[in-house]
Design goal:
Elements lengths: L1 H9 L8 E11 L4 H10 L3 E12 L9 E3 L1 H13 L4 E6 L5 H14 E9 L4 E2 L2 E2 L5 H10 L5 E2 L3 H8 L10 H13 L4 E7 L5 E8 L2 E8 L8 H15 L3 H17 L17 H10 L1
Parallel strand pairs: 1-2, 1-4, 4-5, 5-8
Antiparallel strand pairs: 2-3, 6-7, 9-10, 10-11
Helix pairs in contact: 2-8, 3-4, 4-5, 5-6, 6-7, 8-9
The structure holds 3-hydroxy-5-(hydroxymethyl)-2-methylisonicotinaldehyde (PXL).
The site of 3-hydroxy-5-(hydroxymethyl)-2-methylisonicotinaldehyde has 15 residues, from strand 1 and helix 8.
C-alpha cells in the first residue's frame, strides 16, 4: 500500500489540465504565502484555486500589530459549495494555517474535493531557525505532526522536522546520519515522501534531502545572503508547480531550490525589500526551466 503510494508521486503524468488547490493565508503585504503561491504555480502553467486560511495585513515576521481576519469558520462553507458544484482537484497544497481546527479541516477537504489519485503536498509552515512563528504552540506542532501521515509529499524545513519528531535542532554541522535519523522519524509519523530543506554538510552550501521511499538524494546550492521570509513558500509553490506539471520529485526539488536561490540573489543589497524575496524577477527563469523539461 505504502509502496504504491510512493510510486504515485513518481508517475504524475504530464497533463496541463491538472488543477491545484492551495490552502494558506493571504498576507496582503510581505511576499509570502498566497501572494507568491498563486503567481508561481500559475506561471508553471497549472490552474490554481485558492482557499485563504486567514487574511493578514502583513506576515508575522518583523512586523508588529498585524491585523488578522481568521477564516476558520468560513473554510468548509467554500468547500461544501465546491462539492455541490462537482468541483475537484488533482492536488492539495497546504501552507501556513491559522489554527488547529484548520489542520483538522485539511483531512475533510482532502476527502471532499481531492481526486482519488490526487496528491497532498504538506508544507508545515510554522517555524524556522529553531523557533516557532508567532501565535503557534506545542499543541499546534503536535496537531501538524498528526497530519504528516496524510501527505503524499512533506516539505518541512529542518526546524519543523525537528519539532515534529522531537529530535534536537542543530543550526549547522549536519551530516547524513543526522538527516537520515530525521527522515526515519518523519516516516515513523507516516510520511511517504519528504523534501527536507535547509541542511548543510559544508560551509557556504545549503541544500535539500529528497526522500522517496527508501531512496535519499541530496541537492546543494551555494548559500547566498541571509534568510528571508517566504522563501519556504516560494520553494513549495515552485516545487508543486514543477511536480504537477510532470517533473520527477528530484527535478522538482532542484528547480525549486535554484528558483529560491536566484530569488534571493535578486533581492540582496535591496534595502527596500527586506521582508521577502523578489521572486517576480525569476519567474521567466522558472518558466524556461519547465518548458525545457
Ligand atoms: O512564510 C511563512 C508565513 C506565511 N504566512 C504568515 C507568516 C509566515 C511566516 O512568518 O507569518 C502569516
Amino acid at each position: 500500500m505504502r509502496l504504491w503510494e510512493k510510486r504515485e508521486v513518481l508517475t504524475i503524468m504530464k497533463d496541463s489540465n491538472k488543477r491545484v488547490l492551495t490552502l494558506q493565508d493571504i498576507s496582503c503585504f510581505g511576499s509570502c504565502s498566497l501572494t507568491v503561491a498563486l503567481p508561481i504555480i500559475s506561471a508553471c502553467g497549472i490552474e490554481t484555486a485558492i482557499l485563504p486560511s486567514a487574511v493578514l495585513s502583513t506576515h508575522t515576521g518583523g512586523f508588529t500589530d498585524v491585523e488578522v481576519c481568521d477564516f476558520t469558520d468560513d473554510i468548509m462553507r467554500m468547500v461544501n459549495h465546491w462539492v455541490k458544484e462537482n468541483i475537484s482537484f488533482d492536488c492539495l497544497y497546504t501552507g501556513y494555517l491559522g489554527s488547529i481546527r484548520q489542520i483538522e479541516y485539511v483531512r475533510e477537504i482532502k476527502k471532499k474535493v481531492i481526486n482519488r489519485d490526487g496528491i497532498f503536498i504538506l508544507d508545515p509552515a510554522m517555524a524556522d531557525n529553531g523557533i516557532l512563528y508567532k501565535g503557534f504552540d506545542e499543541a499546534y506542532v503536535k496537531a501538524m505532526a498528526g497530519l504528516v501521515g496524510e501527505s503524499g509529499v512533506l516539505l518541512p524545513n529542518l526546524t519543523e522536522a525537528c519539532m515534529m519528531t522531537g529530535i534536537e535542532y542543530r543550526k549547522d554541522d549536519h551530516d547524513e546520519a543526522y538527516v537520515e535519523e530525521i527522515l526515519g522519524a518523519l516516516k515513523a509519523l507516516g510520511a511517504t515522501n519528504v523534501v527536507l530543506k535547509g541542511i548543510s554538510f559544508e560551509e557556504g552550501k545549503i541544500g535539500i534531502a529528497l526522500c522517496e521511499g527508501d531512496n535519499v538524494q541530496y541537492y546543494f546550492t551555494k548559500r547566498v545572503g541571509r534568510g528571508y521570509h517566504g522563501t519556504g513558500d516560494c520553494f513549495a509553490a515552485s516545487f508543486t508547480g514543477a511536480l504537477i506539471r510532470g517533473s520527477s520529485m528530484y527535478d522538482a526539488g532542484r528547480i525549486a531550490a535554484d528558483f529560491v536561490v536566484e530569488g534571493i540573489r535578486q533581492t540582496l543589497n535591496d534595502d527596500n525589500h527586506p521582508y521577502g524575496i523578489r521572486f517576480e524577477r525569476v519567474l521567466p527563469m522558472l518558466i524556461d526551466r519547465l518548458t525545457a523539461c
